[in-house]
Specification:
The chain has 21 helices and 2 strands. The chain is mostly helical and about 400 residues long. Among the domains are: about 70 residues, no CATH class; about 120 residues, Serine Threonine Protein Phosphatase 5, Tetratricopeptide repeat (Alpha Horseshoe), CATH 1.25.40.10. The protein is rod-shaped, with a radius of gyration of 45 Å. The relative contact order is 0.03.
Length: about 400
């Protein structure tokens, strides 16, 4: 509005200036064409010319507007559809969040061809279809998303992998994630999803390769990460132990980070696999000793007492070192008794086993003492006494 007022004022000033310029000598203008002629004063002629120019200017603008009217109407119609598509996208996302999945899918797909961001429509519609169990439609929307914006391959692939994992299509998800990992090897979320796929497929060897990076980047909660590590390391050891290859099993153990090797449960599992498949590994005893020196654990000392190293006397020397700190530990005393039996030190074995029972009677200790009396000391009555005591304890604890 201000612009038009200024133009009008400029026009008035020009006209007044022209009139003032010729007021002293009005002169005249003669226009003649064939038999037609017009004669007027110079001032009126100037005003008429300016008026004619204004009329011609506005006339051209009107004609131009009329010429552009169809395109303008088309643009306005498209603009209205773009606005409606934007509103449908917002409403569809709200419906999806509220759990109205069917309505969300309808709103998200309606007028998608007029959207400025069709990728968002299709990805959200794929989620809505998945939540309704419409998996064919889900795949169609993902395909349409790729056709709409091929350069968004990562976003589309991640969404596809998430939905496949949610639908327990783990092998398909693994194929999707493997492809994405090649495209974006440093993508943290792809790494998380890939680890999840390996975990669900129980592909422990490949999961073990990802665990150090997962821990370094802290991509999972500590609780979740510990669960994955425990399962993966145990699963890897189990699969290799089945081959009966002691060197391969030992090599696999040293692939495990030291922080995890120090966990008693994992160490006991490793030793249990050696015992189950009759695999002998020279480094096993030092691992047990190192574990106990780092963190005392009654389960580990019990295993150490049963662990046959071939040199019971050396094993006994090592175990007696711990007596200075754990002389009242019934499990250590039981282990010492068992080691003494292997060393054929019957009297010393009896002393350790009876001391263990004196602190805390355990069925395992009663059994060891009963076997000592029955098989080596040939005192049947005492053997019977401890067999009976062990049975009573077992029934009581059971």
């Amino acid at each position: 509005m201000f612009k038009w007022v200024m133009r009008f004022l400029v026009l008035v000033i020009v006209v007044l200036g022209a009139v003032l310029l010729v007021k002293d000598d009005p002169g005249f203008i003669l226009i003649r064409y064939a038999d037609f002629s017009v004669e007027t004063s110079l001032a009126f002629g100037i005003v008429a010319m300016i008026a004619a120019m204004v009329v011609i200017h506005f006339g051209i603008k009107v004609l131009r507007s009329l010429w552009r009217l169809p395109d303008s109407m088309k643009q306005q119609s498209q603009s209205r559809r773009f606005d409606k598509s934007r509103k449908l996208l917002n409403q569809g996302l709200i419906d999806l969040a509220e759990g109205k999945f069917g309505r969300a899918e309808t709103n998200l797909i309606k007028l998608v061809e007029f959207s400025e961001s069709p990728l968002l429509h299709y990805l959200a519609a794929a989620r809505a279809a998945q939540l309704q169990g419409k998996h064919d439609e889900r795949d169609s929307y993902l395909k349409a998303a790729h056709e709409a914006k091929p350069e968004a391959e990562i976003a589309i692939g991640v969404t596809q992998a998430e939905l496949q994992l949610a639908h327990q299509q783990t092998e398909q998800a693994l194929a999707t994630l493997t492809h994405l990992r090649m495209i974006a090897p440093r993508h943290d979320y792809i790494l998380m999803l890939l680890a999840r796929a390996y975990f669900e497929l129980e592909d422990w060897g490949l999961l073990v390769e990802l665990l150090p990076e997962l821990r370094k980047k802290k991509l999972n909660s500590e609780k979740r990460l510990k669960l994955m590590e425990s399962k993966a390391y145990r699963g890897m050891l189990d699969s290799i132990a089945l081959t009966g290859d002691g060197k391969a099993l030992e090599k696999a153990w040293y692939r495990i980070p030291r922080s995890s090797q120090a966990e008693p449960a994992l160490l006991l599992h490793y030793i249990g696999q050696m015992n189950q498949f009759n695999i002998e590994i020279e480094s096993a005893e030092p691992l047990i000793v190192k574990s106990l020196e780092r963190l005392w654990d009654d389960r580990v000392i019990e295993v150490y007492g049963e662990f046959n190293t071939g040199d019971a006397n050396e094993q006994l020397k090592q175990a007696e070192i711990w007596l200075s700190d754990y002389s009242q530990n019934e499990n250590l005393l039981l282990a010492l008794g068992r080691i003494c039996i292997r060393a054929r030190l019957w009297g010393k074995a009896q002393g350790y086993l009876e001391a263990s029972i004196g602190i805390n009677p355990m069925p395992a200790c009663c059994l060891a003492l009963a076997e000592l009396f029955g098989e080596h000391l040939h005192e049947k009555e005492k053997a019977t006494k401890y067999y009976q005591m062990g049975l009573e304890l077992s029934l009581k604890n059971g």
